[in-house]
Amino acid sequence: MSQLQEERKIILGNENVDSFDFDEVQDFVKDANEQLFISHHFATKNKMLVQPRGGFPTYEKQFALYDFFVKANVDVLPLTIDSNTRLNDYATAKKMLRLSEANEMDMLNGYPLVNHGYRTTRKMMTHFNLPVSLRHGTPDARLLTEIAIASGIFEIEGGPITYLLPYSKNFPLDKAFLYWKYVERVCADYSTLNKPINRESFGPLTATLVPPAITIVIQLLEMLLSLEEGVKSFSVSFSQQGSMIQDIVTGKVTRALADHYAKQIGCEDAHIHLVYHQWMGAFPTNRDSADQLINMSTVIASMVGADKIITKTREEAVGIPTKEANAQTVANTQYTLNILGGLPAITDEQEEEILTAEVHAIMEAVFNDPADSLWRKVFNSIKNGIIDVPFSPHIINHNNMITIRDSNKNIRIIDRGNVPIPDHCFEYEKSCCDLNKDTTSIVNDIIHDIGIMQ
Description:
The N and C termini lie far apart (55 Å). It contains 18 helices and ten strands. The model has no long low-confidence stretch (mean pLDDT 96). The strands form two sheets. The chain has an eight-stranded parallel sheet with strand order 1-8-7-6-5-4-3-2, with helices on both faces. A two-stranded antiparallel sheet has the order 9-10. It has one domain: TIM Barrel. Helix 4 (59-71) packs parallel to helix 14, helix 8 (118-128) packs across helix 9 (142-151) and helix 11 packs across helix 15. 50% of the residues are buried. Helices cover 49% and strands 9% of the residues.
């Protein structure tokens, strides 16, 4: 028995899991309908796929949500997981699920997949026969991933950096790398049976003034960590940043460098996709303004040439969106995409050159770390501040990089901390901003920039 299989038996021996039948699950994946695989849809559909967010505690409410989504012409269904499951607290999730079922009141903020189990959940997935994306935010997603794939969920979002630095304060980063290595291996293993399981990185990070160079570097590194374990379908992503031209440049550079670095490690046979998140920062409370923001995001996604767009709702600022609001945003986004055509190609060669140089410089510094494996190089680079995510709550993150918006709403780096941004790039970044203000005024500008869409 392989070391991975031994570890899988231990993980799946969790007391909150019904008996796991490896052979039956393997047969299920092998014979699963190709419509369940988002990798199949990426390969065959000549359109941007539309995917909302959404998760309810009970099976019945999740089923009803999917019903609404299907009627709104959804391409990819979401399965958003509850916070207790994200923290591997399956016992509390179980109690809250029982209370939700008994009182018809949502006591969880998502679907407790582990507690529902794969036998139950699979009935829902195969009923709708659409690709489902697992959205969670879990540093240790080993058990969750196993149950998800056994349920017929063939896209797993997240990674050791993107699901840790934005969400966690103390969870050990080195453990996260090892736990996600397990996830990559399981996904790669199942990918040999049918269409590839797609892995997707979480590009928005803290969704707070993160400069494109940092976003792209982290996307590339999670992609490489995944590909080196044998994954053949991977999605890099980023979210709307507040400037149309910066988004277009970010999309172009991300695509080009993803192909470049995949080829560098001999993985040019992997299929890399680009995903765009509608605005992930603070949303306007005015619902008409929220609708305008969502429509604008859809136009930009089209100009970026994304393979998939992840939607938000007009209720984003006031609480957990209803199934009606979620379905409405899917229908509106599909409508906007359908009427968009013949959009002009916009380029900004200077911005592309600057961003490409920044990413290459950071990647080179990561690769030059003396550690003997890529994950250790990345771990050391975060520990040393070579990778620095603005406004991350995690204790390992330096938080020395300072960013601000210029007059065109582009995110600019005004203090690079330990991040090896080349001098000519750093001078260009600063030259775009008015830095002749006192410190208080600059801080006030940053606060304003965080809430720019409100």
